[in-house]
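Memo to structure team: turn this sequence into structure tokens by end of day. - J.P.
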Amino acid sequence: MPNKTIDTLTEDLLEILASYLEPVDLLHLAATSKHLHAALSQPNIWEHKAVDDFGDRFTITSILDSAGLELGAQNKPEPSDWKKYYRERHLAMAELNKDADAQIAQSEKDYDQAQELLRGFQASGEIDSLSQAAQLMVGVLDNFPGHAGCYHLLGFTLYVLNELEDALSLLEIGSMVDPNYEPIIELTNEIQGLLDGYGSTMTDGAPLLDSTKTLSTQLKSALTDIFQTFDQDKDGGLSPQELSEFVFKTNGSRPPAAFLTQMGIQFGKTSKGYLSLEGFFNFFLEQTLDDPIETRRDLEKHGWDGDRLVRMEVAKNA
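Reply from structure team:
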């Protein structure tokens, strides 16, 4: 049986070992043999160590950028030399620690400002507020990669943009930083509940949306059937009276006349000004993105199985 030495460690084990060593100790270990020097100089060793010690900032900024947020100077390219990047970040963190109290105070100020910007977005709908908040949070994480609150705010930012899968990705990174941070746990559960609603919790359930966040073929088929049921004169639109009947059967109350007129204007109308089939689709897309469970309940009130998206009588015989 061949002797096993540190030179025989696999790349994966060396990565794990490197994550526990201080940089100077890692360099001393690399100096003990040519094999270790070559193995411990590999970019992936220093990339993983940088992520472990300083956070996964490039994954974070890539997710935020793909969601359409403007990150300005915070949107930096991935390093071409991870070992050099690690050395520079290590020196920067050492300088930061010389005046840690001032840096903590500034980071808390930036965190509070990001919260204000998110509250401002909820009032105004200005997307620029979300971009500014994201920039502040990335800056805080550069200095304090263990700040779980930043991951929560970034996840919430993507949540309000309806980028739910990406929001979960950021929250997952935050949960690795602090598995017990309650706001991350609560938001993760809320988003997962929404995703379960889009896709149905039943094993044979049908999705409400497709991968591009548009109405699924099954949901369009159900909505078309419902629309045609209430389009009594078959003119391709729901007149105020027809639309009132639909709303009454759905909610049990009749809406005001202004609401009936506004539906066509807001979501799509025929030449007569009536709510069109496309407008009907647009209304349900907006509702489904906001509350998929409500869409499934609405379908059930019109004789459709809300999970399988087939007629009730078909579902019962399945």
